């Protein structure tokens, strides 16, 4: 008796609403830029802005795959550990074979395989995603430390290092990669039927299944893609840092989740965009960069990130309640 | 006529808890593989080392029974351990250190509970956020450095004995008994079962689920404060990454101990056995000269296996 | 506690004393539906008052008003002749009204005693603790008083359904309940357990407890009831004594609903080829040995009481539940997979709960309309917003969905328009067999007519339909044939000329 015709409230439209959300976030990013320009001398310099862009790109690579997972209503806590193991194994391959191409393929392959395992746990074993990927985090963590045995890998071929630290036409290479993957991610989410199905699954998994969407197969795909993107990110980190250590990805998970949530992707699934995640990564990087320029101790970074995560979820709950 | 309860598990073998089987198996395997395992000093060592974990796993059991989770425990433990060290160093008073640690722990627990119960943020994200906050605060208060030069009393908490029994074991057993009493013999404990098992029933009985939830998380914070004291005493210093990831061992112990992640079916004795199982696993692998990274990975596998089994049980 | 020991005598002295509890002229309206319309109802101590009516006749609304879950719009309550107010569950509890719902309010991992006294535990010596001895003794006393001999320290999870029900009743009695409301208490019980429950009811009657008993089983209506009230369309049709009527009389009172019968329906001269054939279908959800056939151009009804297994049958056909035995042939082809296979073959399920199972409420009308047709519209996998909006807007026009735009969130539409979106989604997918589960639930009259016109057009165009409905009048009016279910099995099949509300109700009732 309770689902009797709910009154229709005005002509509020959902999609434009989503665009407004992204617009607000872009505005916030501009305001932070403006504030930092006024507050510091060093923010508005080419060097610093390129630095911010490069940092944001690195964060975006990890967060973009994660966005798809969050869109389905899941979470992947293993991405940081996945970056670490992919980087270390890819580094070994490059050292041993001297082939960067093989290294890149290995990194993406390892990352994708880990993601697929996550997908199997979530779909076939039906373990809740946050706890399954949390278990995976520690499994990977252990394997990586065991594999590296406390060693650090140094010295990769110069050509390979260009991926992370090179410039082309005055812009860092990662920024070009960012543009490429922003385009691919957006096309995948907005312009393919699989992307549409992913939104549908996140919005209501039961209805999605009863609408004929092969939910388990799509979830498997999404977790695999998320893992593969972590693998790709690991390559760029490797090239940027020119070294591989077991703890390379440890502090990346929380910022990646923060970027996704700041970007307006709902923790409860079905709402959000890959572009939003880019803006989220940009905002977080700007905040952390600004703190750095304002000589705030780097120790404050995890604290601020934690607060931001909670605020973003709170905001998400406020906005989402209106629609559902 | 006398009504008989339907006994679901008719096979007596099925009624032996899985965690006990696993513990015995591990002990047998390690005894066979390393001569040093089955010795009084080693067993005592395992138990002493397990007390900190127990202090996290006990409240974690309660939190998981309410269909919650606390990922911030390890980071908050690091923070409270540092607080104990800093206050003890500054004032020379162990008691003041403990009080400060308890206060910080309770504040974090209350924030977690408030975020979960009042704001309504899913527990794993809320506590992931506070994890970051506690981690940041640890770096800030310690400036990234170890806090050393503890008064002698600090070390005494870990190395001391009471009637021949190591003090940590006394504290651990005390905590276990206190939680046992709390869960099985008080109204509070009764309502925790209802929080996970049937929240509707609680509402009909006129009990506020929100307040209870906040209390459960706050209690967790208090225990983390107490564990902070032991942690500092064990290392005789405060270290800015000391407790990181320990929440995972706690979750592992609870999961292995048979507490269900759905339906509010908690078993405190199972958690105790789970803690010892994790301790034995780590100790045995250590004696086999396997690096600690392998220990971490095997605990991860242990959790996934336990959750899989739990999922199978809840579906059948 | 001993007054009015002989229950049958209670009815005769009725006129002398006021009833223990009485409702007068209760009305309750929801937007678009009158759930209760001027209903009066009373119980005396030591009496079992039967409440009878079809699905949706207003029994559960009445119950919810009684226990304070709903607030009545009009009418008054009287306790022992005095006017009282029931505005909340607490008010109802104070008056001694307790409802034994079908879904139990017990905590599985607490023991019987803890459940009986949840929130009212006797305090132990240490503050906050529970006096274990006292709680067990108190529980034992309550259990003894209802003749339930069991150890109160046993956990609820170890009990069967019947035993849990006993504990619920004990809990109600321990709260000094004088008025017990039971909602189909024997639905999940075996014969032996039913006997035990009846013995308990006799005992409660002897103690002067008033019992309001909702049932679908004719046998118990006659054997237990002191009075019978029949509801229909939210109205009290009559109050009768069991000796004065036959079961046929009761069925006649329950049916004959005043439903608008102007739905158009063009029956085909002769049905087409077999579209769906189900042989011996069983599933873990409790259905067994289901045989049915649906032909092209037909609307086939699937009736029976709520809980008789109708939804489970269509879920198994669609692949949402796994079949444990039997065969499903669709268009001559055997199907055994999940919902994705069903959708690909051309089956469509319009589930009972639009919000929970049919729609992604936060997504737009357009997104919802094309979700099942993605593969059909975009075979190469590339999604085109313009094309998708065109398809969606065509459907919005064709189905006359009232929405400001295809971008409106579907959760903001009215029930009727939401239902059109669910149907539209399968039209876009080009489905050939439509399975409707209560397609008109929660929809106003005008929208209902539109939905039926739509279904009629679908089958006229060569599709087939299988329709679950609790509204027998609708089934009789629009269906070519109907199957009636009872207890997870098909109890009978009625051809068009045999279809009548009385036949459906009779076939669907338990006669055991």
Key attributes of the depicted protein:
heterotrimer, B: 316 residues, mainly alpha, 13 helices, 1% strand, disordered N terminus, C: 512 residues, alpha/beta, six-stranded mixed β-sheet, globular, membrane (chain A), transmembrane helix (chain A), cell inner membrane (chain A)
Report on the architecture of this protein.
The complex is a heterotrimer of chains A (324), B (316) and C (512). By secondary structure, chain A is mostly helical. Chain A is 74% helix and 2% strand. Chain A is built from 13 helices and four strands. In chain A, α1 runs parallel beside α12 and α3 runs parallel beside α5. Chain A is globular. The two termini of chain A are 19 Å apart. The N terminus of chain A is likely disordered. Chain B is mainly α and 316 residues long. Chain B has 13 helices and two strands. Chain B has a two-stranded antiparallel ribbon with strand order 1-2. In chain B, a hairpin with a 2-residue loop joins β1 and β2. In chain B, α11 packs parallel to α13 and α12 packs antiparallel against α13. The N terminus of chain B is likely disordered. Chain C is of the alpha/beta class. Chain C is globular, with a radius of gyration of 26 Å. The longest helix of chain C is centred in the middle third of the chain and has 16 residues. In chain C, α15 crosses α16. Chain C is built from 19 helices and 20 strands. In chain C, 51% of the residues are buried. In chain C, a hairpin with a 2-residue loop joins β1 and β2. The chains are: A mainly alpha (324), B mainly alpha (316), C alpha/beta (512).
């Amino acid at each position: 008796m309770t689902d009797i015709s709910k009154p229709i409230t005005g002509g509020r439209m959902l999609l434009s609403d989503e665009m407004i959300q992204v617009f607000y976030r872009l505005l916030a990013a501009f305001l932070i830029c403006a504030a930092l320009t006024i507050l510091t001398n060093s923010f508005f310099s080419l060097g610093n802005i390129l630095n911010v862009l490069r940092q944001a790109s690195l964060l975006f690579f990890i967060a973009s795959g994660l966005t798809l997972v969050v869109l389905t209503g899941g979470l992947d806590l293993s991405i940081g550990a996945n970056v670490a193991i992919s980087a270390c194994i890819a580094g070994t391959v490059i050292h041993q074979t001297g082939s960067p191409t093989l290294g890149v393929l290995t990194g993406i392959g390892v990352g994708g395989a880990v993601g697929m395992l996550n997908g199997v746990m979530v779909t076939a074993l039906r373990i809740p995603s946050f706890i399954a990927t949390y278990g995976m985090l520690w499994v990977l963590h252990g394997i990586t430390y065991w594999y590296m045995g406390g060693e650090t890998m140094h010295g990769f071929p110069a050509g390979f290092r260009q991926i992370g630290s090179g410039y082309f036409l005055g812009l860092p290479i990662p920024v070009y990669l960012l543009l490429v993957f922003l385009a691919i991610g957006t096309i995948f989410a907005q312009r393919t039927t699989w992307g549409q199905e992913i939104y549908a699954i996140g919005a209501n998994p039961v209805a999605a299944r009863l609408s004929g969407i092969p939910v388990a197969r799509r979830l498997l795909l999404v977790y695999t893609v998320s893992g593969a993107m972590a693998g790709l990110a690991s390559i760029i980190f490797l090239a940027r840092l020119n070294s591989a250590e077991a703890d390379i990805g440890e502090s990346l998970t929380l910022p990646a989740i923060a970027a996704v949530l700041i970007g307006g992707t709902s923790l409860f699934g079905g709402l959000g965009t890959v572009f939003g995640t880019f803006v989220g990564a940009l905002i977080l990087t700007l905040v952390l960069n600004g703190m750095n320029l304002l000589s705030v101790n780097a120790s404050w970074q995890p604290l601020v990130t934690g607060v931001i995560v909670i605020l973003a979820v709170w905001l998400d709950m406020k906005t989402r309640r209106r629609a559902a | 006529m006398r009504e008989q309860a339907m006994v679901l598990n008719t096979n007596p073998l099925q009624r032996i808890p899985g965690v006990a089987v696993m513990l015995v198996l591990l002990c047998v395997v390690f005894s066979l593989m390393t001569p040093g395992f089955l010795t009084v000093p080693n067993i005592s060592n395992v138990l002493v080392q397990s007390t900190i974990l127990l202090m996290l796993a006990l409240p974690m059991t309660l939190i998981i029974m309410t269909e919650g989770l606390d990922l911030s425990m390890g980071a908050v433990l690091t923070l409270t351990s540092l607080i104990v060290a800093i206050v003890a160093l500054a004032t020379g008073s162990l008691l003041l250190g403990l009080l400060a640690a308890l206060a910080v722990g309770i504040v974090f627990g209350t924030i977690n509970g408030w975020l979960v119960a009042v704001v309504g943020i899913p527990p794993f994200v809320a506590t992931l956020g506070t994890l970051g906050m506690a981690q940041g605060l640890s770096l800030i208060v310690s400036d990234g450095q170890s806090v050393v030069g503890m008064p002698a009393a600090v070390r005494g908490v870990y190395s001391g004995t009471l009637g021949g029994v190591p003090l940590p074991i006394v504290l651990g057993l005390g905590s276990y008994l206190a939680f046992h009493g709390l869960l099985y013999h008080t109204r509070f404990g009764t309502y925790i079962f209802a929080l996970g098992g049937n929240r509707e029933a609680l509402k009909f009985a006129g009990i506020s689920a929100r307040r209870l939830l906040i209390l459960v998380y706050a209690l967790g914070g208090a225990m983390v404060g107490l564990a902070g004291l032991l942690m500092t005493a064990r290392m005789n210093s405060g270290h800015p990454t000391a407790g990181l990831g320990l929440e995972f061992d706690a979750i592992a112990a609870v999961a292995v101990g048979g507490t269900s992640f759905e339906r509010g079916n908690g078993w405190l004795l199972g958690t105790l056995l789970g803690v010892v199982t994790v301790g034995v696993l780590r100790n045995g692998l250590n004696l086999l000269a396997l690096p600690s990274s392998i220990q971490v990975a095997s605990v991860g596998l242990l959790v996934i296996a336990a959750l899989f089994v739990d999922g199978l049980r809840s579906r059948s | 506690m001993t007054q009015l020991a002989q229950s049958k005598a209670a009815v005769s002295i009725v006129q002398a004393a006021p009833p223990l509890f009485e409702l007068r002229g209760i009305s309750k309206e929801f937007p678009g539906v009158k759930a209760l319309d001027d209903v009066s109802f009373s119980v005396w101590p030591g009496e079992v008052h039967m409440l009878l009516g079809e699905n949706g006749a207003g029994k559960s609304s009445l119950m919810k008003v009684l226990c304070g879950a709903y607030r009545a719009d009009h009418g008054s309550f009287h306790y022992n002749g005095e006017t009282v107010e029931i505005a909340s569950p607490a008010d109802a509890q104070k008056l001694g009204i307790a409802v034994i719902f079908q879904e139990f309010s017990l905590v599985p991992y607490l023991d019987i005693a803890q459940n009986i006294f949840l929130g009212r535990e006797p305090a132990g010596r240490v503050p906050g603790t529970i006096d274990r001895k006292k709680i067990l003794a108190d529980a034992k006393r309550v259990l003894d008083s209802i003749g339930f001999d069991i150890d109160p320290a046993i956990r609820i999870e170890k009990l069967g359904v019947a035993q849990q029900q006993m504990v619920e009743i004990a809990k109600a009695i321990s709260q000094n309940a004088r008025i017990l409301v039971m909602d189909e208490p024997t639905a999940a019980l075996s014969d032996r357990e039913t006997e035990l429950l009846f013995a308990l009811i006799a005992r409660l009657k002897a103690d002067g407890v008033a019992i309001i008993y909702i049932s679908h089983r004719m046998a118990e209506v006659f054997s237990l009831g002191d009075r019978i009230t029949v509801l229909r369309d939210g109205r009290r049709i009559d109050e009768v004594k069991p000796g004065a009527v036959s079961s046929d009389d009761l069925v006649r009172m329950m049916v004959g609903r005043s439903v608008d019968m102007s739905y158009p329906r063009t029956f085909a001269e002769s049905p087409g080829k077999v579209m769906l054939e189900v042989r011996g279908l069983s599933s873990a959800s409790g259905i067994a040995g289901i045989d049915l056939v649906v032909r092209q151009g037909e609307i086939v009804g699937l009736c029976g009481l709520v809980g008789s297994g109708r939804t489970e049958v269509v879920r198994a056909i669609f692949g949402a539940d796994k079949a444990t035995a039997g065969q499903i042939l669709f268009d001559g082809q055997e199907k055994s997979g999940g919902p994705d296979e069903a959708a690909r073959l051309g089956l469509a399920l319009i589930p009972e709960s639009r919000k929970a199972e049919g729609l992604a409420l936060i997504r737009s009308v357009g997104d919802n309309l094309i979700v099942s047709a993605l593969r059909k519209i975009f075979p190469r996998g590339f999604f085109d917003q313009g094309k998708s909006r065109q398809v969606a807007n065509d459907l919005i026009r064709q189905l006359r969905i009232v929405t400001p735009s295809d971008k409106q969130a579907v959760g903001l539409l009215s029930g009727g328009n939401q239902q059109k979106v669910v149907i539209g989604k399968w039209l876009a997918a080009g489905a050939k067999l439509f399975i409707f589960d209560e397609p008109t639930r929660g929809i106003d009259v005008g929208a209902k007519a539109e939905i039926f016109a739509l279904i009629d057009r679908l089958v006229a165009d060569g599709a087939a339909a299988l329709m679950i409905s609790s509204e027998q009048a609708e089934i009789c009016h629009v269906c070519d044939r109907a199957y009636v279910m009872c207890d997870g099995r098909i109890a009978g099949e009625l051809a068009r000329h045999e279809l009548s509300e009385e036949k459906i109700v009779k076939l669907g009732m338990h006669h055991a």
